[in-house]
Specification:
mainly alpha; disordered C terminus; Arc Repressor Mutant, subunit A
Length: 196
């Protein structure tokens, strides 16, 4: 389970790390390990690769601490660096056959599965299943934008930098994704109403 630290704590830890405090960087690594692992696994690479990339991000940060600048968002900085490492690894390993990001794993984290088992109403489990199906059907860029915005709570400008696109593109991805989900959801609901 990740540590509970505030954004202000993160900035203080980042500053301490830049001044040579290895424990501060270790605390950040421990805090973000599970979050980065979940994100990395969505790129269709092996868990060992994800873990290597996480280690590489923090090792690089430590080795370059004297050259690393301040940041307004540690999470944004880590996600951007980590995504770059994952894509670099994937491209290097599959130079001649690029992996389609449509292979993203859109299963919900353990806590959602646990809640589904605790809640006795079958309708909740059916709703979760329907939502997963609809997320899986989205184009790859829209899926990634939705994940970063609504699961990781990143801002549009941060997502734009992480994905290497402009802010308008991210807004378009999100708008189209939500429109598709809403449209499919309404079609499903209409079909159910006709059935009943």
């Amino acid at each position: 389970m990740s540590l509970r630290i505030t954004p202000e704590d993160e900035i203080r830890l980042w500053s301490a790390y830049r001044e040579g405090n290895k424990d501060a960087l270790g605390t950040l690594a421990e805090h973000y390990y599970r979050t980065l692992t979940r994100y990395g696994l969505k790129f269709g690479v092996d868990r060992f690769v994800v873990e290597d990339c996480i280690q590489n991000v923090f090792l690089t940060l430590w080795q370059n601490r004297s050259r690393i600048s301040t940041t307004g968002s540690v999470k944004f900085y880590l996600f951007k660096s980590f995504r770059h490492d994952i894509l670099h690894y994937r491209d290097a390993q599959q130079r001649f056959s690029r992996v389609d990001e449509s292979e993203w794993d859109w299963s919900f984290p353990d806590r959602f599965n646990a809640e589904a088992h605790l809640i006795e109403k079958e309708s909740f489990a059916a709703t979760i299943s329907q939502l997963q199906t609809q997320l899986s059907a989205l184009p790859k860029r829209e899926r990634e934008a939705v994940y970063l915005r609504y699961y990781e709570n990143l801002e549009v400008h941060e997502i734009a930098e992480i994905m290497g696109v402009n802010r308008q593109s991210v807004s378009n991805f999100l708008q189209k994704a939500l429109g598709r989900i809403r449209s499919r959801w309404m079609s499903t609901l209409a079909a159910l109403l006709v059935f009943y």
